[in-house]
Write a structure and sequence with these properties.
By secondary structure, the protein is mostly helical. The chain has one domain. It has 4 helices and no strands. Helix 1 (about 1-25) runs antiparallel to helix 2 (about 35-55) and helix 2 runs antiparallel to helix 3 (about 65-85). The protein is elongated. The protein starts with a helix and ends in an 8-residue tail after the last helix.
Length: about 110
Amino acid sequence: MNLLKSIFISSCITLVMAITGYAGWMLYPDENPIAWSGVMLTAGLLLTVITRLMLCKNVARTSAHFPFINFLAAVGVSLVFGARYGIRPEPDVYLDVLRRHGIVPVAA
């Protein structure tokens, strides 16, 4: 039983790392960054929780922060479904937001 559990945990961590890496890689060149940011948010949260549980010795299995983590995962899933079913702003919307925050300079 321990062997089966260790195989499951190892494959789960590997799969979540692959999904997070692929979502990060597709975030820039794809035409739908909202969907990939939702995938990255959901898979990244799971990866963070599993990594914290594996690295820290005294971690309770129940936490007061789990409702917030579940909320963020639900936001990620809703971003994916929203992007899949029609929420796709034009690229100029992203540039306007970045210009308002001073990340991208305003072209003269």
